[in-house]
Design a protein that fits this description.
The structure holds two protein chains of two kinds.
Chain A lengths: L1 H12 L2 H24 L5 H8 L3 H17 L3 H8 L3 H36 L8 H29 L2 H22 L1 H5 L2 H8 L10 H25 L4
Helix pairs in contact in A: 1-6, 2-3, 2-4, 2-6, 4-6, 4-7, 4-8, 6-7, 6-11, 7-10, 7-11, 10-11
Chain B lengths: L11 E10 L2 E11 L3 E6 L6 H8 L7 E6 L2 E2 L10 E4 L11 H12 L4 H9 L15 H13 L5 E5 L7 H16 L3 E6 L2 H7 L2 E6 L2 E7 H6 L5 E4 L3 H10 L3 E5 L3 E5 L3 H10 L6 E4 L4 H13 L1
Parallel strand pairs in B: 3-8, 3-9, 6-7, 7-8
Antiparallel strand pairs in B: 1-2, 1-4, 4-5, 9-10, 11-13, 11-14, 12-13
The chains are: A mainly alpha, B alpha/beta.
């Protein structure tokens, strides 16, 4: 399994895609931080947490693009043939590789955000974030990024169509989710998107604790990944 | 380079392979064997089901029915691995934004192979000078070479290559022909599909012909050429006597011109021996046609009719 992980990691980091997502993650984090700081006073701890929390959804998109791209570029077949393993195991290795990559990208974005954000937030009114808050936001952002990347790989492998998978995810995120929030805040909080951002430290989820959000995110990710692995085992690789 | 092997039965065995996509049957009840120490050509017109059959043979697609064994082991959802089986089905199968070296590095890592194999196979296929270039910038021929490099990474005993001659320049075709002949001579098993029949005829020992997903013929290339669509032309002043002898021996005759006779179903040597035995004077004895291409068209047209 180590061999599969190594091979998939080399694939993950050897195209410009990951660099684009890393640059995007840093840019999103900085824009979020600066807009939050400049637009209003960040008087509460929740405001401050939201200003420096990570963006796990971006890593979910990285996983989707990477996994669905295996079929678009027909690289899934050579990987399965070289590995000489069950295709489900290869997909599991791919998910692990994207989890590590997602965690690395999130760490990079956090490092930049913390370096710039902590001094800026120190000048904001109200209580300051303490070391425990920062550890939770840091660990939560990296964890949420890793789990979201796994979710993305599972969705990409199931969809096998990059464009459809990305557009579908964005429609869910920007169209279905706001509508769902109008219907029920609880259902909104129980979505994989909101639970992921809650694990990263954002405060969009009103009815979930951090631990609850992590459980919800895992409750989405593990079954979807299991279905993707079982499906991958049974489907043809064209 | 492939190390010489014993006479172990490294071979591919396909029994009753069928692949259906909804109501479309791409491959139907296909049975064939591929022996070690030989290059086997897998021939058929476009849409005959060659690529589907090859993909099922290497475990990339699940057959609707039938069974494939490689080296005696049934091929399920897990292919045998790069050390046993080298496959080139897609032209390169590499991400266009990735360099050839990174593509091969990832496959070598997946297969648990040492990194030095990457440089070795790049040198074998003549891509070492372009290894750092992105695959998207490659020509068709270079992508073919990259696909072959990937197939060779594990120095496998068995090679399955789908249209490996496509896009190669004459030098590349010559190199590949020599390379495959050497691997077969070292005891390796090679199964390659091709629609470039003249080239395939110069490369292969055995031939499997399929049409509309079904097996049309399997045999040594010599046997197939002997089927000669044109038969054997004989000129004799006593052709009637020879014709009767040929028919008694199971051949088919066709009169041509004043003293000509075309014999089907027998080779020139057999016809000559028969004439000698019957004390028939021969003025001419010429195998007619009989190229792989003619036989191929004859077989596939017969199947389509």
């Amino acid at each position: 399994m180590t061999a599969v992980l190594r091979g998939e990691l080399i694939k993950t980091v050897s195209t410009r895609t990951v660099l684009c997502y890393a640059a995007g993650a840093v840019a999103f984090a900085l824009v979020n931080l600066l807009v939050s700081v400049l637009a209003s006073d960040l008087a509460s701890l929740d405001d401050k947490r939201a200003a420096i929390a990570g963006f796990p959804i971006l890593l979910m998109l990285l996983g989707i693009v990477g996994a669905a791209g295996e079929y678009r570029h027909r690289t899934a077949a050579p990987a399965a043939l070289a590995a000489g393993r069950d295709r489900g195991q290869v997909l599991a290795g791919r998910a692990a590789a994207y989890a590590l990559t997602g965690a690395a990208v999130a760490t990079l974005a956090l490092a930049v955000t913390f370096a710039i954000g902590i001094p800026l937030l120190g000048e904001e009114p109200g209580p300051a974030l303490d070391g425990g808050d920062l550890v939770l936001i840091g660990a939560g952002s990296v964890l949420a990024a890793a789990i979201s990347a796994i979710m993305g790989v599972a969705v990409g492998a199931l969809a096998r169509n990059q464009v459809a998978a990305v557009i579908g995810t964005l429609l869910l995120l920007f169209v279905a989710m706001p509508l769902l929030q109008l219907v029920s805040q609880t259902l909104f909080d129980l979505s994989p998107f909101v639970s992921a951002t809650a694990v990263a430290g954002d405060t969009a989820a009103e009815t979930l604790s951090w631990g609850g959000a992590l459980l919800v995110l895992l409750a989405w990710t593990l079954p979807v990944t299991a279905v993707a692995i079982i499906t991958e085992r049974r489907r043809d690789v064209g | 380079m492939l190390s010489p092997m014993s006479n172990a039965t490294h071979s591919i065995c396909v029994e009753g392979l069928t692949k259906r996509y909804g109501e479309v049957t791409a491959v139907e009840d296909l049975s064939l064997t591929v022996r070690p120490g030989a290059v086997t050509g897998f021939l058929g017109p476009n849409g005959a089901g060659k690529t589907t059959a090859l993909a099922a043979i290497v475990g990339l697609i699940r057959p609707s029915a039938g069974r494939v064994t490689i080296d005696g082991v049934s091929v399920g959802s897990a292919p045998p691995g790069a050390r046993k089986l080298g496959v080139h089905i897609e032209s390169s199968g590499a991400h266009p934004g990735r360099s050839a070296r990174d593509h091969l590095r990832s496959l070598a890592a997946l297969a648990g192979l040492p990194r030095r194999r990457v440089d070795e196979v790049l040198a074998i296929v003549g891509l070492e000078h372009a290894a750092g270039r992105r695959v998207g910038k490659y020509s068709t021929g270079m992508r073919q070479r990259l696909g072959l490099a990937a197939a060779l990474l594990g120095d496998p005993e068995i090679l399955v290559l789908d249209e490996p001659l496509n896009g190669l320049d004459p030098q590349g075709i010559r190199w590949l022909r020599t390379f495959l002949r050497e691997r077969a001579a070292a005891g390796g098993t090679v199964l390659l599909s091709s629609h470039v029949l003249a080239e395939a005829a110069q490369t292969v020992d055995d031939v499997v012909v399929i049409h509309q997903g079904r097996l049309v013929r399997q045999g040594a290339i010599g046997e197939l050429e002997q089927l000669g669509a044109g038969g054997v032309f004989v000129s004799s002043p006593t052709r009637e006597r020879l014709a009767m002898a040929v028919q008694r021996a199971g051949g088919i005759v066709e009169f041509e011109g004043r003293d000509g006779l075309v014999v089907h179903g027998m080779n020139a040597g057999d016809v000559g021996e028969l004439a000698h035995g019957e004390r028939v004077l021969l003025r001419q004895l010429t195998p007619r046609g009989g190229s792989l291409e003619e036989v191929f068209f004859s077989l596939t047209e017969k199947e389509a009719a």
